[in-house]
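Protocol step 6 of 9: fold each sequence in the batch and record its structure tokens directly after the sequence line. For illustration, a two-sequence batch is reproduced in full.

Sequence one:
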Amino acid sequence: MRKIAMLLSAAVIVSAAACSSGGVKEPGEGGEGDAGTGGKDKKVELSFWYGWTGPEGEALEQLIKEFNETHDHIQVKGLSQSDYQKQLTAITGGNPPDIASQFGQNVTSWGVKGAMQPLDEYIKRDQVDLNDFVPSALSTAQYEGVTYALPIAMHVSMLFYNKDLLKEAGLEGPPETISDLKLYIDKLSVVKEDGRLERLGLWPGTDAYTFTQVFGGKFWDPDKKEVTPEDPGFKQAVQLSKELWDKFGSENLDRFSASLGKYQSAQNPLFAGKYAMAIDGEWLPTFIKQFAPNLNYGIAPIPYDESKPERKNAGNINTSVFYIPKGAKHPEESWQFLKWLTEKEQMVKFTAAIGNLPTRVSALDDPAYNDVPGFKEFTEYAKSPNMGSFPSLPFMNEYMDEISKRFNDILRGKVELDEGLKQIKEKIQPLVQP
């Protein structure tokens, strides 16, 4: 998961928040700072910073163009800005964009420290139906009853597999259970006589967040206000990765990894036959169409734990969101644009163009996705009641960073499993507010 290394200082953000206009205005009223520039005959100009680049950025620019052509009083100027640290710098400096994109994992930490303007008054006033959003996706944009952003796209991982390599190994269809997965990895991995890896059935550092959902684990106990890295489900997820990792060893895996090609290219390990299987997101079929159109592949649910069949079709949801920064000069017009962007029609256009999943339930079966590679599998999978997301917490980034560090240490044998999980608890629990 993508992470932001630097968090906000509450005191600094509060000072920036003082620049924000107060309260929600009636439709048509300009935001603070309109005097002399927001008259009836002049358009309010909004600055919009978004993290997408290349063709994905171009798809968003098309929507910006459509909005500008259909809204007389607002002119939006987009800027592809994938360095999110610059958003923080602009907010703390009192000169933020009017609207911006972010990742759901950062919403709570930014929101509670004053970087994001709450949207609930706007939502209530304009009767935006939050029930139409996938619950796990919407939860990434909320904390303790406050909505700080709206999710435009969600990201779910599934199992991709090379049908030709499975057939060569005498395997029919994808693995369905965790036991199947282990067997497939053994049969599909190729090790040379000198011990060097030629092919991996699956990269052993599996997605611990997704597999925690598979094993029915949790990261947070809201009743006790306690982080739970020692939860049995999370422990099982890490154990699975450790077991697979130890089959090959750090030295061999590092050497093999250094020889792999770039992800977004024809040399992607799955495209080039270096991986027989891969756990990846809904955007990958679009890349396959672009870089490896002849790849004979399939998409399947993440294998489930046969001892927990009720957890079949479990997975982890991440999101991309839009928000209004504190201190935005034109919050009312920013809300009008944000609301328009996240309405079903625009959401479908954007996510279908870039190969991401929509966050509105009503959009999941839209015919616009019929021609998007892989979307049938992903949209059906996303409807599963066993989809979850990492809990939205003010210290979410610190928690995930610590998990990443200790996960790596456990895989490489620098710390024992139980001790590593204990260290996560000791490091993060003090961050919990009483």
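Sequence two, same batch, same settings:
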Amino acid sequence: MNFSLFRQRSFALLIISEATSLFGTFFLNAAFALYVLNLTGSAEKFAAVLALGMVPYLIVGPIAGVLADRFDKKKWMILLDVLRGMLCIGLFVFSLFETITMPFIYFTVLFISTCEICYGPVFISLLPSVVKEEELVSANSFEKTINETMKILAPFLGTLVYSLVGIGPVLLVNGFTFLISALAIFFMVIPKVEGVIFRQIHLFKDMWEGFKVFFIDKRLTSIVSNAFLTHFFMYPFILLGFPYIIVTILGGKETDYGIVESISTIGAILAIFIVPPMKKFGVANNIGIGILGMCVPVIPLLFLGNPDFIQLLKDSDYYPVLFFGLISFLLFLAFSFYLVFFATFYQTVVPRELFGRYGAGMMLLNGLARLFGFLIFGYLFSLDSLLYAVIFFGTGMLLKIVVHIPFMVITKNLEQQRKQAAQGKERVGTQLGAGANE
């Protein structure tokens, strides 16, 4: 990998900002999931809280990309980081005197999600602006490697700290990580788009332009659809199902869930080192390989429909961690590999001036997918067998393969056209050379 990228100040600070912010977020999310499960004890109620976090994506999402493309990116990101940091620190102080009840959780989920939907499109637009196009694959690989490394420690430490001292200190750590992220952004040099002035009269026009980006290339439409399926099937199954099955159904320890999440990150990190030798197979093929790899872990999950297998997991302190750890490892090994090429493709196709609106549109669609995914999986996990949820999850993974087929076909046709064009130029050159010799 190209380590010289870290000599570029803005790229290094961008990675530091994202890494610290993500560490705090996953640190909080792991503890928050267990805290809510302890308060509710219900898969459906837990799913409702997770679904609530998707509501701002639907309300704020349509305008978030417009704001990202119009406002000063640096000030906007610092403001959002500081607001999230102060909220978490404020909740920590509150927890010293009172119990954090469900109404506070609802508010926190809504507020942080609102900031995230406003923050995300800006962040998405930054990476391609601080590195060269030919460095994007390496930059994306570094970004995933460092961020996934942060995620190894975050879930385990989050569950450990929560189990030892409660939710308050977890909020304090999360608050400081947001403030560190803001400080890193403060020292960044972010390129500005000249001549851009926000005019409210063009708001809806700009929103529509953001959605039209999805259709400028049928391959882009394909990967956007693929992302929708990922957030509809995979994320709800993992974020809702894993903690619910491990802690509530199997009666595992809270730290078991944290260990499983950390194991998943090891798979994600190893995937990054597979990327360089696989680049020769092309973006389309590698995205397909990643999708096929995500289907593999569905097979062992089918055992969850067997009561005897569930009892076997319950009777052991180690089997749940080993089983779900292996599933997570394989799933995120494939997913992280897929994600590098997914990001590299859209970063080279989407116009730079529309990155913010593209990012907001993606977050809106993904938020909508997660909203309904959480609600559906919440119902499926409340049934008498886990097999229903597993089959539904597997169906989603198969649909991802189907959606990727147009991408493969179009890419193959384009490659053939380029090859034919190159051969045509070569023949013309040969003929011109022969004519000159005559």
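Proceed to step 7 once all outputs are recorded. Observation for sequence two: The chain has one domain: 3-191+198-420.
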